[in-house]
Amino acid sequence: AFCQMTGTDSLCAADFGKVMKQIFPSVKPRRLGTRGNSRYCYSGLRKKLKLKPPTLPDMHAESENSESQEEASMDETTSASCHIIFQWAEKLFGRKFASLKNLASYLLEYMYVDNRSVAAFTVLLEGSPELIEKGIY
Fold first, then answer.
1. What residue spans define the domains of the chain?
2. CATH of the domain spanning 1-43
3. How far apart are CA 72 and CA 66, in angstroms?
4. pLDDT (tens digit, 9 = 90+) per residue, 55-114?
5. Of 103, 101, 100, which is closest to residue 92 (Cα–Cα)?
6. Residue 40 β-bridge partners
7. pTM tops 0.85, yes or no
8. What is the mean pLDDT of residues 116-121?
9. DSSP H helices in 24-117
10. What is the CA radius of gyration of the chain?
11. Measuring CA to CA, how many Å separate 108 from each of 5, 94, 96, 124, 135?
């Protein structure tokens, strides 16, 4: 029913087995039935009840409680990190970005990121009213 609604084809047993082998390499399928009428049983799969939230890198430089050397080092590190991100984005998108705000606006405009987040809304309100007019948000 889902495949018909979305217009996609379902996986055949062989392709599904390949996908399972890639995702769960330690789970071994058990063949049930006679040759030609085989069904595969993937036992030992359990749903995790509690997932640990992923840790995200700190994008803010800590400047209030640190000494001036640490602050300068952190600013230098942050600047270098931004430069690396700009290089990566320019290589990926084939376009130069003048600032992080410019890069963020580009990502929102071309829907590379979710435009329903608080961060996206803040960027849209502060620096990109043209995106709101286009109906991106």
1. 1-43, 76-126
2. 1.10.10.10
3. 10
4. 877 666 554 444 565 666 668 888 888 889 889 999 988 988 888 888 888 888 888 888
5. 103
6. 31
7. no
8. 84
9. 68-93, 100-109
10. 24
11. 29, 17, 16, 8, 11
